[in-house]
Write a structure and sequence with these properties.
Blueprint (H helix, E strand, L loop, with lengths): L7 E6 L2 H11 L4 E4 L3 E6 L2 E7 L13 E5 L2 E5 L1 E6 L1 H13 L4 E8 L7 E7 L5 E6 L3 H4 L4
Parallel strand pairs: 1-4, 7-10
Antiparallel strand pairs: 2-3, 3-4, 5-6, 8-9, 9-10
InterPro entries: Glyas_Bleomycin-R_OHBP_Dase (IPR029068), Glyas_Fos-R_dOase_dom (IPR004360), VOC_core (IPR037523)
Organism: Cobetia marina
Protein name: VOC family protein
Amino acid sequence: MAVSDPFHLAIQVRDIAEARRFYGEFLGCPEGRSSDSWVDFDLYGHQFVCHLNPALADPDNPLAQHRNPVDGHGVPVPHFGVVLEMEAWQALADRLTAEGVTFEIAPHVRFKGEPGEQATMFFLDPTGNALEFKAFKDRESQLFRK
């Protein structure tokens, strides 16, 4: 998937090898440049970087999260992800479900029948970073619709 203006996002992880397994092998993001303390991934055409924060490996120092109510669910904040085409979203949801991923918010459609109706799912990476992948029937007209 080509992106005309890709974003750059850097997050902290507790273990680089674990991040490579999760983002590279499990989610299938191709790896770019790297060092002992960071690794670049191609996340659907966006530059996504995992930076090592060894303090997160300490179970007494977890990645803090807040939850915000959205359409009857507690949405983890912060979170990040990609807005996919509906077919790609469904394929990812099916694969993650088959792999036994524990969802923070299971794949479903929210705002049914309203502007901005969308398919969404939330899950955590091994460090505890929250990811949301979503899709719209018509992404171009629905993404920012009020």
